[in-house]
Amino acid sequence: MSEDNNRDSLIAAAKDALEDSYSPYSKFRVGAALRFADGTVVTGTNIENASYGLTLCAETVAVAKAMDDGHRGGLEEVAVIGDTAGAISPCGRCRQVLNELAELGGTDPVVWCAGEEEVVKTVLSDLLPRAFGPASLD
Ligand SMILES: O=c1ccn([C@H]2C[C@H](O)[C@@H](CO)O2)c(=O)[nH]1
User: What are the catalytic residues (predicted)?
Assistant: First the structure.
């Protein structure tokens, strides 16, 4: 499958997840999708809380779902999309959460930052250079 097909299908999965967003407070819907080396795609959406600070971001929900399914590596690609024209980018906490899963499997996943009218390609190590991760505790 070409990189573009991968990209388009992963962004479509993230956008589909966004439809389930529970974001009554910010009304800012976010979807995330993770693609693993075995082809598995795991998605997440943001889940807000009346105690605002307890909000769960889409990327963090996706990582939690994936790890609950047993994934411990092979994270090759991530897509995150907002209800915006321009591309959105994972927040700092989500970068750290994504890094845990990436570092466990020794990958540096491509991160597609997307909006309705823009897609920006980056890699996790550019979003979180010199990360503190599992290896830091060795
Ligand atoms: O990387 C991010 C940044 C923000 N949000 C969510 C949290 C909140 O519900 C809304 C506005 O910040 O967007 C995410 O899901 N992922």
Answer: 59
Write the ipTM. Answer: 0.99
d(CA 94, ligand 1 centre) in Å: 9
Give the pLDDT band (50/70/90) at residue 5. Answer: confident
Query: Domains of the chain by range and CATH?
Result: 3-128 (3.40.140.10)
Q: Where are the alpha helices (DSSP H) in 19-127?
A: 58-68, 92-105, 124-127
Active site residues: 59
Each residue's pLDDT tens digit, 54-71? 999 999 999 999 999 999
| pLDDT tens-digit readout, 109-134 | 999 999 999 999 999 999 999 999 99
Residue 105, exposed/middle/buried by CB under 10 A (0-12, 13-18, 19+)? middle
The annotation status of 94 as a binding-site residue, yes or no, is yes
